[in-house]
Each structure stands twice: as structure tokens, then as C-alpha cells.
Design brief:
Number of domains of chain B: 2
Radius of gyration of chain A: 21 Å
Number of strands of chain A: 2
Strand order of the largest sheet of chain B: 1-2
Distance between the termini of chain A: 25 Å
Helix content of chain B: over 70%
Structural class of chain A: mainly alpha
Shape of chain B: globular
Largest sheet of chain B: 2 strands, antiparallel
Largest interface: A-B, 28 and 26 residues
Shape of chain A: globular
Radius of gyration of chain B: 21 Å
Strand order of the largest sheet of chain A: 1-2
Number of domains of chain A: 1
Number of helices of chain B: 19
Oligomer: heterodimer
Number of helices of chain A: 18
Order of helices and strands of chain B: HHEEHHHHHHHHHHHHHHHHH
Number of strands of chain B: 2
Order of helices and strands of chain A: HHEEHHHHHHHHHHHHHHHH
Strand content of chain B: under 5%
Largest sheet of chain A: 2 strands, antiparallel
Chain lengths: ~450, ~475
């Protein structure tokens, strides 16, 4: 709870900072301190003796439980890494340097709401607080038509999906007379209320938009491609993971009882997402677009947590949060320095920058899910979660085949870096500091890959 | 402690050779020599009981860090250490570009292989299984031949699909026994045997796909000739002498005890595929002019025979497989070492362009002929011991088609003699291809081949130590 307040305060402080601080460097220092503080508060909150209990706030509209605290720590940590790696690039996007950081802080408010809502209204607020600043960030490179296009597309599709979301909430309210997720009681009903079922399906569609699950994914590649790269790194990782956590929170608390009536729909969505994401990623020439499709493909795996709705899936979500976010953010931090965003732009990187190439290899191996990296453990938990339920063996096998496909496009980066001759032109070089942060990211992936219990908190 | 040392030794050496690039060559040689000594010591003391390590690692996932060395594990880790040592010794007088990374990756591969042969926790086994692959992928893609990137990538994707299927099977099995040691050997054997017939039959497919691709069994073999041909010869030795054994080892260690019903349901299918592979690969080997592809196909034939024998489910045949895995490892490594030396001198893999090596390199030719004889299992060579046991096992098995299998697989032996002798004629004898002076074996190469030859003869004449070792 304090975390939500802290994030809001940070946002407001940063808004004022834009006209109080004249120098970019002092702004960046302030930003670092503030987001470090956010991370600190998240840790402090999770270390409270009450953190393992479920606490409710504001007439039970917000419930903070153990999972919330764990997730908040992880997401705040990933955000801190993101800020450390990207702050210079964020400040270089356009004129309104401090505002970008303020918007990111506000998005964090929404993310923390998504991880702790109990009322559908708070969930709606959370989603909107996450979405609206993103429309601005997507269009922040005003000179660039592609950025404007991304912003408009994102806005239209986002508004469209909000419609679904509201309609779904309305139907659910009609069916249950309640906004409180924990009060929904479908078990006692003799038959499923069609209003409730319609509401659930609309919510699947709405969240499908937010997490870019096929066939609601069509906005993703263009938006991710057009958005300035520092913000793509943010949208494709932390925001997406947060939407997943919201999705999972909603479904596991309220809709488990009627899962038989919606899980088939969701399983088709998952299969489609995996298929479209992976197969389309294979054909991309631009690494940035490939990452956009790979984020769709990874979403397919994350959806396993929602279809299985068990404790293993929840733990898997935490591992996925770290593994996927850290690997993608760090790789974006490398990509952003490249002159040419195509695969050919990476040709010969291993000769010019052996250290950076080795780190990039670790990120790619993790995204591809090679053992002893975080990515493997993330996929492992998800598969285990879905196999534990026993009904979706075909989905697990299909997902594994698609994971093998994903190796193709992730390894194309490795092939370009190590086995092809080329210049691998960089816009500017890596500072010692950035190399340190990138190394920390790689180490984190390996540690999570070897000891996932550190993240799932089951030690 | 010994087991952990065996894993740590190549791993530490690999890290050190990255840190101290000038000493990479020495580090690799010394560490693998030490590994040979340790595995020898371990093999000699196997009668006192198998070595075991079990350490909690991820209790909530049911994964342990558990190692176990019985006779089979011992013999294969001995083979791993020995072959690595031979490879490094052979490389001693050759210049490799970017040597430090090359040696370090080979040492990482050695770590992975050791782990595969020693792990007694299925997930740990899976980790090592994958970790052995990654360095090989980089080695072949960086130091390989012209088409290396495409070919190695195909190899990688093939084996990766296989291992993912295995992963699905493993998770399914692990879920049946919740507990801190869900994936340990004993837990898996218990749970596997308790599964229904249909479950075992479908799980078998998931596991066997991974192992069949690795071995490789027809029709999953298409990656292999290309990969052997394009990889640098040192890496090919790792691939053919050690990595393909991983597949067969996994069948013996995991598949047979865990899913007995599945194995007996599928055994005829697997044997028929193996025999098709033997005949098919032999016929292709007869027509090869590329010496590396030639050895690749002959290796498919040999692996096919071992796989067929493994699935007739007869004690003698099983023991034969264990013996032959070791023997074949030695022989095939010997073959590749000879080829690497020929390639080093003549810069060609084309049999037609070679010829008359007997007059230019007499020492090498003697070694080559003996190793080839061992490869076609002539009596008094090591190949004979294993192959004899395989055939005797197939013949005496309870399988109703055992005579047919025996005859068809026997055809493979005849074809084997034919293609090997044809190759020898072309390469060793015949008219000399060049008149220029070619240096015969250098000292280190002579040592390498001497070790291989003495093993071939010694184990051919007196195979008892190995027979005893693998019976534990």
C-alpha cells in the first residue's frame, strides 16, 4: 500500500523536477535515487512481519497478500535495472525529459494496483493508469511519423479493448451484484449465469488485448516497432508482465469454480498465440520486430499460469517476471546502441565487443529457454503448472514444439554475432557502468536459473 | 568427492583457460590426463561399491544434485576422459585459431558429458544433456567447414526438439511423485513402473525421440553425416565417440528401468528401424568418396547394431552393448584421429584424391589398418568382443524374430567389411597421389595412436577387466 503512495509521490516530484532542475545530469541522478527508493520501499514492505498475511485497505477494495509483495519487489527491482540501463536513452528521446520519468512512475502506480486489486473498479483504474501514459510514451518521438502512428494505433486499440473490459465488468456486476472479486461465488449457483459467462469471456478478450494474445495481438508489432526503443523495452516487459499478473489475480480468485466453461476458449487462444508469435518471428528481418513477436510468443507461455490457476503457475509467473523482463530489458539496452536494427547489424559483434556479445548470448539463451538460465526455469514452472492440471497435455507438447521454433530466431542473433563477418556498427560505446548493469542482469538470469526458489520465495 | 572432482576438473580448467589464454593447451592436456587417472582409479575400486553424491538442490521442484557411478557410468566417464585426453594430445602440435576459446569450449563439453554419464537425478541429467550440446554448437559453428552454420544449426534444432520432448515426459513423470527427490533414479523407477500400459507407451515416444535423434537411429539420422563432415575433426571425435553414446546410455540407464512396458511394446519397431539404419547406412558408406562422410555412415551402422541389441532385452546382449559402447568409442576416435592427421597433411577429404599413403606415411598406415580392422570387428581386436556378444545376445534372445534380426544385422557386418576394405584400398594402397614429401607421424601423434592401438589389441585379447567393470 505504501508502495502505491510512494510511486505516486515520485511521479509528482518528477513533474516538478522538470522546471526546477536545469541540468539533465542532475535530473538523472534524482531519477536514480527516486527509483532506488521505490525498490527499497518495495523490499521494506515485503520484509514486514505482516507481509505474509493478507491485508485489506479501502473497504477491501485493495488486498495486499504475499504474492503481491513478492511480485512488487521483483517488478520494482526490474524497473530499477531498466532505469539504470535506459535513463540516458530516455532523456535523449525528446524535449520533455522529466515528464517521461514521471509517466513511468505513474505507470508503476497502475502496476501496483493491478497486483493488489480486490475490486473490479480498482482493476479498471489500474489498467487505465497503466495504459494512458503509455499512449503518450509511444508517441513521444514527435518528429518521427512511425512513433505518432504507433501512438495512435495503440490508443485506438487500447480504447477499443477498454470497451470490452467495461462491458465485461458491467455484465459481471449484473450477474453478481458485486464489484468485489473475492465475493463472487459461482459455486453455489446451480447453473452458470449467462451474464457472468459473457462477462468472463469479454474480460478474456480485454486482457487478451493488453497482454497481446492472438488474435488480439495485431497492434503489437507496429506499436513496439514505432515506439522509441527505450519505451518499447518498458512496454514489452514490465507492463506486459503486470497485465498478466492482473489477469491471473482476477481469474484465480473468482473464476476458478467455473473454469470448465472458459478454459477451452483460453486454450485455443494460447495455442494461437504461441503459433502466431513464434512462426511470424521467424520471418522478421528486424531484431526489434522479432522481439515484438517474441513477446507475443512468450505471452503464450505466460498464459499457462492463467489456464492452470494453481500455486505452481503463480510461482512460475514470478520466475517469468524476472527471467523475461531482465533478459529483454538488457537485450534492448544493447539493441539501442546498434546503428542497424536488422540481424545483419549484429554481424561480427563478437569480434568487436566480445564481452557484450557474450552477455547478449546469455540473454538470448535465456529467452530461448536453455537450461540453467532463468528462461528455462520460467518455462519449466509453466509447463509443470499446466501438466499438473492434467487436461492440457496437447497444449504442453505444442508449446514445446513452438519453443524449439523460438530457438531459431533467438539463435539467429547469436549466429550473426559470432559466425558472420561484419562491422556491427554502434551508435556509441558502452560505459563501464552500463557494462556492470548488463553483467548484473546476466548474473541474475543465471542465479534464477540455478536457484529459482530465491524468486518464488519457497526456500 | 571423486565424482564432484570429475565434474569440477574440466569446468575449472575451462574457466582458467579463458582467464589465462596462453596456457589453455597445457591446462586442457593436464586436466584431461588427471581425469583419466581419476576415472581409472574409480573403475578399479568399483567392486567396493558404487560412488554416490546426493545433495539437496531445489527441494520444492523435487530436483537433487545427485550423482552415481556404477560400472556403466564408470566405463563411459573413463571413455570421456580418455577420448578428451587423446584429442588434446593430438592437438598438441597443431595450431588452432582462437585457441583459448576452442580449448575452453571443448572442456565445457567434457564437463557436460561427464555429467550426463554420472547424473542420477533425471533433471540434472537433462541439464547436463543440454549443456553438453551448447559448447559443441559453438565449436562446430565457429571452427567448422564451409557450410558449418547451416549444418550445425540443423543439428542443434534437431536435438533440441528431441530434448524438449524428453522434458515434457520428465515433468509428467515428476508430477506423479511429489517430494524432494521426485526426479531421483529410484523414485522415477518406482513411479514409471506403476504407470498404466498406455501411459508408458506414450511416454516412451517422448523419451525415445530425444534419444533416437542423438544416437542417431534411422530416420532421425539426417543431421549426422553433415554435422560430422562440417565440424572440425576434434569436435567430430567428441560427437561420434561420446555424444552419440549419450543416447544409448540414456536408453539403458533411464528408459529401460523406468518404462519397461513401453520398451517391450515398442521394441520390435525400434529394432526394425535400427536394422533398416544398419543396411541403409552400409550401402551408402559403400559409395562414399568423402572419407569423413564415410566414417559418419559407418558409425550410423554401428550404432544401429547396438540399439537393436539393446532392445532385444537379453542380458548377454545388454552386457554386449555396454562393452561395445566403450570399444566403439575407442575405435571411432582412432578412425577420426587418423583422418585428422591425413587431413592435416593432404588437405583433402576426398578418397579418390588420396592413395598410396602406405609408401609416404608407413607408420600411420599401419595404425590405420589396425584401427579399421577393429572397426569391422576382426577377432583379437576389441571390436570383436563387443560385436560377438551383441550377436550372441540377439540370437539367444526370446524375441520370436531373433533369427531374422540376426541374419539382417549380420549382413551389416559383411557390408562393413566390404566398405572398410574398399576405403583402405583407396586411401592406404594404390598409387601415390602426390610425389611431394609428407611428414609421417610426429611424436605426440605417435603417442596418441599407440594408446589407441594398445587398447585395441589389449582389450581384444583380454577384455576381462572391462567385462567385470560393466557388470557392476
Amino acid at each position: 500500500m505504501i508502495l502505491i503512495i510512494t510511486a505516486s509521490i515520485i511521479g509528482v516530484v518528477l513533474l516538478f523536477a522538470s522546471f526546477l532542475l536545469k541540468h539533465t545530469s542532475s535530473l538523472l541522478h534524482l531519477v536514480t535515487v527516486l527509483f532506488a527508493a521505490l525498490f527499497g520501499v518495495a523490499i521494506w514492505e515485503a520484509l514486514q512481519p505482516t507481509a505474509i498475511l493478507t491485508q485489506s485497505f479501502y473497504l477491501d477494495a485493495i488486498r495486499v497478500d504475499r504474492f503481491t509483495n513478492q511480485f512488487n519487489v521483483l517488478i520494482a527491482g526490474c524497473l530499477f535495472l531498466y532505469i539504470l540501463l535506459m535513463k540516458k536513452h530516455i532523456a535523449a528521446v525528446g524535449k520533455y525529459k522529466a515528464e517521461y520519468f514521471a509517466l513511468i512512475a505513474f505507470i508503476m502506480v497502475g502496476i501496483f494496483m493491478l497486483s493488489s486489486f480486490n475490486s473490479l473498479l480498482v482493476m479498471f483504474l489500474g489498467i487505465e493508469i497503466v495504459s494512458i501514459p503509455q499512449y503518450i510514451l509511444a508517441g513521444s518521438d514527435k518528429e518521427n511519423l512511425k512513433s505518432t502512428e504507433a501512438s495512435l494505433k495503440y490508443f485506438l486499440m487500447g480504447a477499443f479493448s477498454t470497451g470490452f473490459l467495461l462491458m465485461g465488468i458491467t455484465l459481471l456486476y449484473g450477474a453478481t451484484g458485486n464489484f468485489m472479486v473475492s465475493e463472487f461465488n459461482f459455486l453455489q449457483a446451480t447453473s452458470i449465469n449467462p451474464l457472468a459467462l459473457g462477462g468472463v469471456l469479454l474480460l478474456i478478450v480485454a486482457f487478451g488485448f493488453k497482454v497481446s494474445a492472438a488474435p488480439m495481438h495485431l497492434w503489437t508489432p507496429d506499436v513496439y516497432d514505432g515506439t522509441p526503443t527505450p519505451f518499447t523495452a518498458f512496454m514489452a516487459t514490465l507492463v506486459k508482465v503486470a497485465a498478466f499478473v492482473g489477469f491471473m489475480r482476477l481469474f484465480q480468485t473468482s473464476f476458478t469454480a467455473i473454469s470448465s466453461s472458459w478454459s477451452l476458449v483460453l486454450s485455443v487462444v494460447i495455442a494461437l498465440t504461441l503459433f502466431v508469435g513464434n512462426i511470424t518471428a521467424v520471418f522478421q528481418q528486424s531484431v526489434k520486430r522479432m522481439l515484438a513477436y517474441s513477446s507475443i510468443a512468450q505471452a503464450g507461455f505466460m498464459l499457462f499460469a492463467i489456464i492452470s490457476l494453481n500455486a505452481i503457475g503463480r510461482q512460475g509467473m514470478l520466475v517469468y517476471t524476472v527471467a523475461y523482463s531482465v533478459a529483454s530489458i538488457c537485450f534492448f539496452a544493447i539493441l539501442i546502441k546498434m546503428k542497424d536494427y536488422t540481424y545483419d547489424g549484429f554481424n561480427g559483434l563478437a569480434k568487436k565487443q566480445p564481452f557484450i556479445a557474450a552477455l547478449a548470448t546469455i540473454y538470448m539463451l535465456s529467452l530461448a529457454g536453455i537450461p540453467l538460465t532463468g528462461g528455462f526455469m520460467a518455462k519449466y514452472y509453466m509447463l509443470k503448472a499446466v501438466l499438473f492440471e492434467g487436461t492440457y497435455m496437447w497444449l504442453a507438447i505444442f508449446a514445446l514444439l513452438m519453443a524449439a521454433v523460438s530457438v531459431y530466431y533467438y539463435f539467429k542473433v547469436i549466429i550473426a554475432m559470432y559466425f558472420k563477418e561484419g562491422e556491427a556498427a554502434m551508435v556509441d560505446s558502452f560505459t563501464k557502468e552500463e557494462k556492470l548493469y548488463l553483467t548484473i542482469g546476466a548474473m541474475a538470469l543465471l542465479v534464477v536459473g540455478i536457484f529459482p526458489s530465491l524468486v518464488t520465495g519457497t526456500i | 568427492m571423486i565424482l564432484i572432482t570429475l565434474l569440477a576438473l574440466p569446468f575449472v580448467a575451462a574457466l582458467l583457460s579463458l582467464l589465462v589464454p596462453q596456457q589453455a593447451k597445457i591446462l586442457a592436456l593436464v586436466s584431461s590426463a588427471l581425469a583419466v587417472l581419476i576415472t581409472l582409479y574409480m573403475s578399479m575400486h568399483i567392486a567396493e561399491g558404487a560412488l554416490t553424491v546426493a545433495q539437496a538442490w531445489l527441494p520444492d521442484l523435487g530436483i537433487q544434485f545427485a550423482l552415481h557411478a556404477d560400472g556403466l557410468s564408470c566405463s563411459l566417464s573413463l571413455l570421456t576422459a580418455l577420448v578428451s585426453f587423446l584429442v588434446f594430445l593430438n592437438l598438441n602440435n597443431k595450431e588452432v585459431p582462437k585457441a583459448a576459446s576452442f580449448y575452453s569450449l571443448l572442456l565445457f563439453a567434457q564437463t557436460g558429458l561427464m555429467g550426463v554419464f554420472l547424473a542420477s537425478d533425471a533433471m540434472l541429467f537433462y541439464f547436463f544433456w543440454e549443456l553438453a550440446l551448447i559448447p559443441i554448437y559453438f565449436l562446430s559453428s565457429i571452427w567448422g567447414g564451409e557450410n558449418r552454420i547451416k549444418v550445425t544449426f540443423k543439428f542443434f534444432i534437431y536435438t533440441f526438439i528431441g530434448s524438449l520432448m524428453m522434458l515434457a515426459g520428465l515433468i509428467y513423470l515428476g508430477l506423479q511423485t511429489p517430494g524432494a527427490d521426485a526426479f531421483s533414479y529410484h523414485a522415477l523407477v518406482a513411479v514409471g513402473n506403476s504407470l498404466s500400459n498406455t501411459q508408458q507407451i506414450s511416454l516412451f515416444v517422448l523419451f525415445f525421440l530425444a534419444f533416437a535423434i542423438k544416437m542417431p537411429i534411422f530416420p532421425f539420422h539426417t543431421w549426422q553425416p553433415d554435422a560430422y563432415d562440417e565440424a572440425p575433426t576434434s569436435v567430430t571425435i567428441f560427437l561420434s565417440a561420446l555424444m552419440v553414446k549419450m543416447g544409448l546410455y540414456a536408453v539403458l540407464r533411464w528408459l529401460m528401468p523406468v518404462l519397461p512396458e513401453g520398451v517391450s511394446y515398442w521394441s520390435n519397431t525400434v529394432i526394425i528401424l535400427s536394422i533398416i539404419g544398419i543396411l541403409y547406412a552400409s550401402i551408402i558408406a559403400l559409395q562414399q568418396t568423402n572419407i569423413k562422410r564415410f566414417i559418419a555412415y559407418s558409425s550410423i551402422a554401428h550404432m544401429g547394431l547396438m540399439c537393436a541389441a539393446a532392445f532385444v532385452q537379453n542380458d548377454l546382449a545388454l552386457h554386449g552393448v555396454k562393452i561395445q559402447m566403450f570399444m566403439h568409442g575407442i575405435n571411432i576416435a582412432g578412425m577420426w584421429l587418423v583422418v585428422s592427421i591425413i587431413e592435416n597433411r593432404y588437405h583433402t577429404k576426398d578418397m579418390n584424391a588420396l592413395g598410396g599413403i602406405a609408401s609416404t606415411m608407413p607408420k600411420l598406415s599401419i595404425a590405420f589398418v589396425i584401427i579399421s580392422f577393429a572397426n569391422i570387428a576382426l577377432p583379437l581386436t576389441n571390436g570383436f568382443v563387443g560385436e560377438f556378444m551383441l550377436f550372441a545376445g540377439i540370437f539367444s534372445s526370446a524375441n520370436p524374430n531373433h533369427v531374422l534380426y540376426m541374419v539382417l544385422a549380420g549382413l551389416g557386418v559383411i557390408l562393413g567389411a566390404a566398405y572398410t576394405l574398399r576405403m583402405l584400398q583407396k586411401v592406404v594402397f594404390g598409387t601415390a597421389s602426390t610425389t611431394q614429401a609428407v611428414k609421417d607421424l610426429s611424436i605426440n601423434e605417435w603417442c596418441v595412436l599407440a594408446i589407441v592401438l594398445s587398447l585395441i589389441i589389449a582389450l581384444g585379447v583380454y577384455a576381462k577387466p572391462l567385462l567385470t567393470l560393466t557388470s557392476f
